[in-house]
Amino acid sequence: MKLIGNVLIVCAVLAGMVASAFAADGNYLPDLSAGTVRPASPDAALKKDAVCTRCHDESEAMPILSIYQTEHGVRGDGRTPTCQSCHGESEKHLHGDPNVKGRAKPDVIFNKHTFPMSEATERAGVCLTCHKGSARSHWEGSQHQANGLACNDCHKVHQPVDKARDKKTQRDVCFTCHKEQRADTHKASTHPLDTSKMACSDCHNPHGSTGPKLMKKNSVNETCWSCHAEKRGPFLWEHQPVSEDCTNCHTPHGSNIKPLLKNRPPMLCDDCHDGPHNSQAPYGAGMAGNQGTTVTNPLTNANNASSSAAGRACMNCHVMVHGSNSPAGALLHR
């Protein structure tokens, strides 16, 4: 009973604190956590919205009222913005501007319809008023910001389902601009984007990153290792191009060579290992091949000790291409 009594006392204190945070007349009170001013109650928020929704409703080319089916329309949460939180008070739009023929434009316009859109920096600035820090801390200077994109170019806050945040549809939003990557995903070997087992944002942070190509981690390898942990190592014997960058051998968005390889072995291996196999002499010097026999190039009639010309696959022997912990694995053998 004593415990229950203490709980009731705490609840009463909290209720009093919450009640004191709201103004009796529904005026605005500052929300210090977000650095903005918000309505004091759900009724006050709906009253502010009604100034806009009495004209802007589902008859619009881009329906408006469906925002109440999203997180931006949950009036039971005091952090939820109103129309004016994003579009500005827009006094001239509401009451007219003697210097403008017809109706003046709102303060901030997110979609090109009746009026031209506001600048990207202005549109993004409105969103970043609340959505700040964490994954968005590197937006300034990111590739998307530098190319003139704003949040609403990808996100649609008035729609019940934001395609950019849904794993099933996110790729379509990204592919609107990244068409080369769309084509790659239809090749024989790809990451499972089309089956919705992963999304672009599993590897990339579209809001900015300290890594290359908007990677979620600080490097390509760290990002790949998030899923391919068995390739992380550390290994007793490491393969230098693997430890440097996975994309030295793999193309992540899709390839017609499994598994996501940029070229077929042994040609892929020859990009780095371009000398005769197991020999210190140059091509055509008449050296013996691996099995003590001379390999003749039928095109040049020259002796050649290259394993590629002999039609052999490097990975028949050098299987542990990502690294080996075998005491005998210095050459990445089995």
Description of the structure:
The structure is a single chain. This protein is mainly α and about 325 residues long. It has a domain of about 60 residues. The protein contains eleven helices and four strands. A two-stranded antiparallel sheet has the order 1-2. The protein has a two-stranded antiparallel ribbon with strand order 3-4. About 15% of the residues have low confidence.
Q: What's the structural blueprint in terms of helices and strands?
A:
Layout (H helix, E strand, L loop, with lengths): L1 H19 L8 E3 L4 E3 L3 H12 L29 H5 L3 H5 L24 H9 L14 H4 L23 H6 L3 H6 L35 H6 L14 H5 L22 H4 L25 E2 L4 E2 L31
Antiparallel strand pairs: 1-2, 3-4
Structural class by helix and strand composition: mainly alpha
**So how many helices?**
11
Q: What is the string of SSEs from the N terminus onward?
A: HEEHHHHHHHHHHEE
Distance between the termini: 70 Å
Based on DSSP secondary structure assignment, what is the total number of beta strands?
Answer: 4
Quaternary = single chain
Uncertain residue ranges: 7-36, 278-295
* Biggest sheet, spatial arrangement of strands: 1-2
Fraction of residues in β-strands: under 5%
Helix residue percentage: 10-25%
Please summarize the sheet with the most strands.
2 strands, antiparallel
Q: Give the CA-based shape.
A: elongated
Using the CA coordinates, give the radius of gyration.
31 Å
Average pLDDT score: 81
